[in-house]
Amino acid sequence: MALPPPLRALGIGEFNAPHSLEMYLDYLCPFSNKQLQGVYEHLLPLIFEPSSPYYGKVRIILRPYPQPWHSSAPILAEAALAIARLAEPSGKNAVEETNNLVDPKLNAFWVFSREVMKNQEAYFDGPSRTKNPDQIRGDFVNLAVATLGEQPKREKGKPLVKSHERGMPLGQAVKNLVRVEPEGNAGSAVAPDLKYCVKIGRQNGIHVTPTMIWNGLVEPSISSSYGEKEWKDFLEKHIGGGQK
Fold this sequence. Notes:
By secondary structure, the protein is α+β, with helices and mostly antiparallel strands. The chain has helices at 30-48, 73-87, 94-102, 108-118, 133-156, 170-178, 191-203, 228-238; strands spanning 11-12, 19-25, 58-64, 211-214, 217-218. The chain has a single domain (5-238), classed as Glutaredoxin (3-Layer(aba) Sandwich). The chain contains 8 helices and 5 strands. The model has no long low-confidence stretch (mean pLDDT 93).
């Protein structure tokens, strides 16, 4: 499934993989969180381990799909989409950055999305009721800096993502993308990206999260409770070549 250039970071796995798995997730949905953590723990090793029979055979796309009854969900989705924009390859390092998009450990959007999910409970309707939208945006700007800038520097010496403007701090770059002007009704700079995610979900008849799409068709058999065995069985059935 193709992605528009500003959102190529939504996908991991080989660009020419013969199969695709699309995940429609809401960052404030507990079952979306369970689905994403399960994919990280049980599915990704089957796809990214070179010794696996399914290595390189599946491309996975995470599509943010905020549900309207989760009041802060669009704000969290926009924060993640801002990271996707910053992860878009550019300049002299475009080849290296494009290669990084394939790897879930180096794809900044995926790393950040997982961290957002881990922090979701603090932004459920009850706990976040006293925070205004700008305060929530500020929290996730700080989370982006900590997760994608400071922590990778400590561990690997290199941030996972940086501003496209030379010399601009990562936090300011994210803030610029999620900021809403005091006048008008245009939304943030990433509002068009959020609209794209919502429109494609509506076009495909997505109602609940998580919803999984395999090779273009909704696959209701995939559960957020899938473990290693269930994913192995699924891949064996739909791809073949695995070991019993």
